[in-house]
Amino acid sequence: MTTITQAIDLPDALFRRYTAIREAGHGLTAVATYQAHVIECALRPGTISDGTPFDAFTELRWRTPRAYLAVLQAGAMAQERWLREQGLWTPRRELATQVAARHSRDAVRATAASAEDVEQAASWARELLDRHWLLLLYCAELLDQRGHLNGSHLRKVLREA
To answer: What is the rounded average pLDDT of the residues 116-143?
Structure first.
């Protein structure tokens, strides 16, 4: 049985950046909605090649269901765009990205939002990612280097842009 990490099949440094892209996608989208508050985005130490556990998360609080739906969908959207821009996209990696986003998809389903609300939030997430793409890449780089960013880091980056 192939794991998600094996299906992504990226060297440790690129896998870490790929993961930072997802978390920065969640975090920066949350801040850009002005309807959610980021507590922290974090990458836990670990490497893929030696089997050391690797973990990442974004902790946040949201004020509106629409913001929550947008934030949930933004992580995988950011990863797919990044893979394409880096020339790393393959159908297998896209599928693995979608499988890895199952927690977010389950959370979207748990809201019992209508299909129309989910699609409107996805459209909003895409718009925010497009508008702030270069900032997202910068935040992902910072997250990759530092291992964590809090909401004030993300708000400052957005404010200074």
So the answer is: 98
Q: Where are the domains of the chain?
A: 4-160
Q: What does the block give as tokens for 159?
A: 């404010």
What span, in angstroms and rounded, lies between the C-alpha atoms of 36 and 135?
Answer: 18
Q: How far apart are CA 141 and CA 135, in angstroms?
A: 10
Cα–Cα distance for residue pair 27/94, rounded to 1 Å: 21
For residues 26-50, average pLDDT? 87
Distance of alpha carbon 67 from alpha carbon 64, whole angstroms = 5
Block residue for tokens 């925010």: 128
- DSSP type of residue 117: H
The neighbouring-strand residues paired with 56 are 43
> pTM of the predicted model, to two decimals?
0.92
Q: How far is CA 161 from CA 94, 134, 135, 136, 155, in A?
A: 30, 10, 8, 11, 10
Please give the Cα distance from 53 to 50 (Å, whole number).
9
Report the CATH fold assignment for 4-160.
Methane Monooxygenase Hydroxylase; Chain G, domain 1 (1.20.58)
What is the residue whose two structure tokens read 């797919």?
A: 80
